[in-house]
Amino acid sequence: MDYQKILDQIHEELTYKDALGKVASYIPELAKVDPRKFGMHLYCDDASHFSFGDSEERFSIQSISKVFTLTMAMQLLGEDLWERVDVEPSGDPFNSLTQLEYENGVPRNPFINSGALVIADILVSNLQDPKRELLEFVRKLTGNNTIDYDLDVANSEKSTGYRNYALVNYMKALGNIKNDVEPIVDFYFHQCSLAMSCKELAQAFMLFANRGKLLETEEKIISKTKTKRINALMQTCGFYDEAGEFSFEVGLPGKSGVGGGIVAIHPSKYSVAVWSPLLNKKGNSELGMAALERLTTLTGFSIF
């Protein structure tokens, strides 16, 4: 399979000029991102790399980070984790408060904001220094010790994150948050501010395409069973109330973020990341969705 030829064709076909989406503006720092940015990187199971555009420029990965924190929480708690967060698609916006009232403070899944905040609470409870340990985990997955938080983004989120404070307070009132509110949201805002490139994201997510092991060293990070669970959640819940559309159009497990990034994996074949900050009405990268649809169409590979 000539992946570089396919990526070059995608790059030729798609341009920001055709996108109708807008850069995320509810986080002030994200509103400053150049809407013309567009990059894609594919990392194969034979350790080969293929890319185009702005694939090595770092950006705020936002909710893509929820896959990393979920992986860490599953390492710590195993099956007990699911007593505090469910595994069902939400069908509602990622920051919805409505479902929590009906479901007694148990979030539908770990990828909506309320679910990720419960995961943050678990990590705050179980780790000595959760921000440092998350950073160490991501650096290990990529083999790159220069990855860091974008503190401007973290502070920007903190200044406008009233709904996330509301989610934590509401779940605390219903007994599903164990720590004080401030350390939880502080950790959450930092995890969302992680700055990574498409290349680094593709390298990190190869873990989930390679049965829970690092590709270069074959070191086991998480069990094959837990990897299967995470991939299933990415397939059904990785795009909020557009998860069905992504499965229909692309047919891969993946995760999006409002920074404009999307990562997807094809088990035992590749991991791929794409970045374009222009978001559709559901908060997912418009060009990113289109690029991944073209990838699975042109290669003929999806999990279905």
From TrEMBL:
<protein>
    <recommendedName>
        <fullName>Glutaminase</fullName>
        <ecNumber>3.5.1.2</ecNumber>
    </recommendedName>
</protein>
<dbReference type="InterPro" id="IPR015868">
    <property type="entry name" value="Glutaminase"/>
</dbReference>
<feature type="binding site">
    <location>
        <position position="188"/>
    </location>
    <ligand>
        <name>substrate</name>
    </ligand>
</feature>
<keyword id="KW-0007">Acetylation</keyword>
<feature type="binding site">
    <location>
        <position position="240"/>
    </location>
    <ligand>
        <name>substrate</name>
    </ligand>
</feature>
<comment type="similarity">
    <text>Belongs to the glutaminase family.</text>
</comment>
<dbReference type="InterPro" id="IPR012338">
    <property type="entry name" value="Beta-lactam/transpept-like"/>
</dbReference>
<feature type="binding site">
    <location>
        <position position="164"/>
    </location>
    <ligand>
        <name>substrate</name>
    </ligand>
</feature>
<comment type="subunit">
    <text>Homotetramer.</text>
</comment>
<feature type="binding site">
    <location>
        <position position="258"/>
    </location>
    <ligand>
        <name>substrate</name>
    </ligand>
</feature>
<keyword id="KW-0378">Hydrolase</keyword>
<feature type="binding site">
    <location>
        <position position="113"/>
    </location>
    <ligand>
        <name>substrate</name>
    </ligand>
</feature>
<feature type="binding site">
    <location>
        <position position="157"/>
    </location>
    <ligand>
        <name>substrate</name>
    </ligand>
</feature>
<dbReference type="Pfam" id="PF04960">
    <property type="entry name" value="Glutaminase"/>
</dbReference>
<feature type="binding site">
    <location>
        <position position="63"/>
    </location>
    <ligand>
        <name>substrate</name>
    </ligand>
</feature>
<dbReference type="GO" id="GO:0004359">
    <property type="term" value="F:glutaminase activity"/>
</dbReference>
